[in-house]
Design brief:
single chain; Alpha-Beta Plaits; alpha+beta; 5 strands; 2 helices
Length: 85
């Protein structure tokens, strides 16, 4: 199955959603290349970027689950070309 490299940008405005967010990320851990989180204390939010290498449907499912969390926004940016596994 073709794999894509993507970045999922996440904004967390609800601290109570962090536990559920981490559970989702753990569920997709095998596809995660790396993660960077930045707490923005002045605005009381966190900015997280997740680099992934997975089939597009897996990436979409993960980002969809994240985006459905209350107080959490997620957007995905895909690489231009896919790579074969």
């Amino acid at each position: 199955m073709a794999s894509r490299v993507a970045i999922v940008g996440i904004i967390v405005e609800n601290p109570e959603a962090v536990e559920k967010l981490n559970a989702i990320l753990h569920e997709y851990a095998e596809y995660i290349i790396g993660r960077m989180g930045i707490p923005y204390r002045e605005r009381k939010l966190s900015i997280i970027s997740i680099a992934v290498d997975a089939p597009q449907d897996i990436i979409s499912a993960m980002a969809g689950k994240i985006g459905r969390l209350s107080g959490v926004s997620a957007k995905t940016l895909y690489s231009a070309a896919g790579a074969e596994n």
